[in-house]
TrEMBL record:
This is Cytochrome c5. Residues 57-129 form the Cytochrome c domain. InterPro entries: Cyt_c-like_dom (IPR009056), Cyt_c-like_dom_sf (IPR036909), Cyt_CIE (IPR002323). Keywords: Electron transport, Heme, Iron, Metal-binding, Transport. The keyword Transcription does not apply. One of its GO terms (molecular function) is iron ion binding. The lineage of its organism: Bacteria, Pseudomonadati, Pseudomonadota, Alphaproteobacteria, Hyphomicrobiales.
Length: 136
């Protein structure tokens, strides 16, 4: 009887944590999901209009990244939302974010819809979206 209560309690805790976003399934194991400050209405409006200053990179961003990274409901970190990107950089670093872009992460497909991008382009796109590069 005690064993059943313990198992039921453990399942309840795991379900509650999963429902509140405390745990997410990632790469075959559990990873703790940290709290990210939600973007404000101004952040969302800004994300809809930001574009890389480099013309060729702007074309790649428009066709491959903008559909998700400029829409709050897409659950992708918004372009220009520093708080949304800072934590990702501290958790995974630049190389980890590049790996996520190439291999996929969560809802993001592998190659991020840019099958012809080079590592340099991915790095520049991440830099732009995270607010670490000038934009217009």
């Amino acid at each position: 009887m005690r064993k059943n209560v313990l198992v039921a309690s453990a399942l309840l805790v795991l379900c509650a944590a999963a429902l509140t976003g405390g745990i997410m399934w990632w790469n075959g194991g559990f990873a703790v999901q940290a709290t990210v400050i939600a973007p404000s209405k101004a952040d969302i409006s800004r994300a809809e209009t930001l574009m890389p200053t480099d013309g060729s990179l702007a074309k790649v961003y428009a066709r491959s990244c903008m559909a998700c990274h400029s829409v709050a409901d897409a659950q992708a970190p918004l372009t220009g939302h520093i708080n949304g990107w800072t934590q990702r950089f501290s958790e995974r670093g630049s190389r980890g974010l590049l790996k996520s872009a190439k291999e996929g992460f969560g809802n993001m497909p592998a190659m991020g819809l840019c099958t012809d991008c080079t590592d340099e382009q991915y790095t520049a796109l991440i830099s732009f979206m995270s607010g670490r590069e000038d934009s217009q």
